[in-house]
Fold each of these.
Amino acid sequence: MAQAAAVAKPPAPPRRRRASATPRRLPYLLIAPAALLMLGFIAYPVLSVFYYSLRDYNPTKPWRDGWAGFDNFVHAFTDDPQFWDTLTFSAKWVVVEVGLQLLFGLALALIVNQTFVGRSLGRALVFSPWAVSGVLTSAIWVLLYNSQTGVSRYLADLGLGSYGASWLSDTSTVFPAAVVADLWRGVPFFAILILADLQSVPKDLYEAAEVDGASRLRQFRHITLPHLKDAIVLSTLLRAVWEFNNVDLLYTLTGGGPAGETTTLPLYIANTSVDAHNFGYASALTTVAFVILLFCSMVYLRLSKFGGDEK
């Protein structure tokens, strides 16, 4: 008994120290300054627009400033036909531009995805217009559409059309001319995104399809398109938002004319705020545009099942 009592008890296991919470919070602490800065740059303008949309605010007529409530919104929907005209044109512009850019961008991506001599140079030429700014793109096409030295002059020399024709001043030709100018810059955006996704398609799928006797069209329909679904949905959504907010190209190219034929809603907002100094009403129109884009984006993503599995 005494011998057993003399045996030393085994030492108790050391207590595990409580893990410090600082290492877990360190990444959030490091990105907090940048996150707060970005939040300030985003949240403050958005909240300011919402606030001024409920006010009559004109810096040139401060005696008329005051609380307006929802009067600006009521005026937009009931007493401003130009709002509906510009909104209709914006929808038309987005549908035509995004549809054609997707079609030509997909075709270009399929072409430059093939193996041929000079493929690197061809890809560089296809993607180069995307590096050009909107204002510079407009300047290039203004020169191309010039009635004295542009394309119409050379076509008239060939007997196609008449001398002195100004495509940007004619209501029957201004829309197609503006569409072509924006296509030149917008098509490479789709080509870049779709080509990047095309290169991730497993080659084994095409080889198996060829063994089964599938034609090129069936391979494109059942292999290529399903694989490109998410890339197409994302690119069309991004481009639709950008085209809806297109101001630089149309403003430089046509100024919204002739006779308001190419005035989009954002361009109308810019004219209302900058030229007419009616910042309260322009803020209300901006809020309406924001809600429209948000609603359409949510519906589009919902209907397209973006990120979901095909059934």
Amino acid sequence: MRRYGKNPDEDDIRVRPNRKGNRPRTHIRPKHEDAAEGMVLTVDRGRLTCLVEDRIVMAMKARELGRKAAVVGDRVAVVGDLSGKKDTLARVVRIEKRSSVLRRTADDDDPYERVVVANADQLAIVTALADPEPRPRLIDRCLVAAYDAGLEPVLVLTKSDLAPADKLLEAYGALDFPYVVTSREELADGEAADRVRELLDGHVTAFVGHSGVGKTTLVNALVPKDRRRTTGHVNAVTGRGRHTTTSALALPLTDAEGWVIDTPGVRSFGLHHVDPSRVIHAFPDLEPGTAECPRACSHDEQDCALDAWVAEGHADQARLYSLRRLLATRERREGD
């Protein structure tokens, strides 16, 4: 076996020929410093629809991204044909750092996280007051996910012409977040859309809700020029709606600044990914009271210091009840 020194003559080195005749692979990837910035509007079977400046560009994920997937709301770097013309295809070469990520799991025992949207700052929880009946436990779960992701919640109650909203609003009044009550007549004449639009102006808002609650109908009223298909059918036996939205879609608000992201209807919202200890951060009036709690306090036990904190007048009893209900939701199966 021939050995080489530290500085062998080039003539002494054997070079194995490349049988394929192409360039050898390298781990050095281009930085794509000239890539254009885009926003992912929707994802469909591996194809990403992106907004680049004022053009809609179809793109696919570059190989160097590996398993990292882009989702609706992502800010991405795009190269290639950015003309937006028919039958052209660009490449997404980089996913920029996300300001927020809304996640859910299929159920509380499922460790696989599904990213719903990225870079939103509000979560509009849409619930019908009847047809189908409200599901408070699903609302609670969405609230926990919103607080965990750092999103501000907004409650949108639809179909107030079928049932009053007082009882449901009373249950969530202590959480002190904005809400809008709408009827089908108000949606038809545009009055409801105007009230909702005021809450969404200047924000990127993700819409979530049970199937059949009128979520997509509301989105169509907010963005009339980009209407999505709706049916509004609710099964009379199960009380469940039919999925009319099959993929998330980001749309610019009409007559306002901001974006609305319509998501498919959900029948469950698993919270396996949520650490219950982070939910307290959504209650700044209660959080200082946890300083005297025993270690690893669940905030729903005999020695919890929050009871004394509330008794001393630092916070309202209804706020403590709301916190404990949300924490219990983390451990409760959907539908209980």
Amino acid sequence: MTNRRQFLKNMVAVSSLSLSSCGWKLANVSSNHTSSAQSDNLQIYTWTQYTDSELLSTFTTQTGIKVLADFYDSNDVMLAKLQAGGAATYSIIYPSDYMVQKMVEKNLLTQINHESLIGLDNLFTQFKNPSYDPENRYSIPFNWGTTGLLYNSEKLENPPEDWEYLWQNQDKLYKRMTLLNDVREVMGATLKMLGYSYNSQNETEVKQAYEKLKILKPAIAAFDTDAWQNQLLAGDLLLAMCYSTDAVNISKENPKFKYVIPSSGSSLWTDTMVIPKTAANLAGSYAWINLILQPDVAAKLSERLNISTPNRAGFEQLPKQIQENTNLFPPESLLAKCERSTPIGEFEEIYERYWTQLLA
């Protein structure tokens, strides 16, 4: 471990350091990117459910680098922190797909040197050249999923099939349902229900979604991304709009909670790994991504963290019951109705204006 740490501190234009025990390498990283004071640490900024002690200890064992993790619960919170000067703190960040585009436009990200990576060929084809980041120039996919509804099947005899269910059962769900604290997800879901795009740039359509949500708002307990989980498990809530990753975790803890992707469609998202331009430990950043790209690591993460791996080779190592879990890996017929959230430029101000009015 000491030799590897010293190597990172003094690394100058080396071709690679192979770590045969797990099959990945550190490659072509100049010492001017990693000061000796910083190379012992790798600071990451991620979603709460995307790491665990086993992953952190594996990385530290293999590299001698200690990982320090901070967490956020929305892309907007993450971006605001970075723009306020927090970018210099982190060497790996986990933005969602549309946020990658926004961060590239704001010149916040380092273009990834693919020659410094091992394992890109392990990805499913659809993740090798995604629309939000052609040729994976700035991001590497970590997890993907959907947004839907998680409900208490013992309390709600008629399960939700579409977003319209919330309005049709507003009295029954009064103050016992939550929506995400995410303008694009909440407005997007309502737009989808109305027959429009998740990414509508028509103010008339967005206003219709706002008016629809205004009708529902009195029955909503909260706009919340994380705290709803304990409330649902405790029986205080009957239903929550959530990400599939969270839904799988809750359903695993108590099978009475069922997840559904609304029939009119929802969002299809990918969370990624990126390297900010101000990364203090560039060598460590590549080492982290290389570890995640390994099939056995990807498979174990999918099992432990209940996430949908974009790693084809990792997927093939998963037990059959996980491969066939439709909450993690939905059928193509459902995915075909889903849309990715995409950057909408200056029109985002329209969404924010209506969102502010809704929350007021």
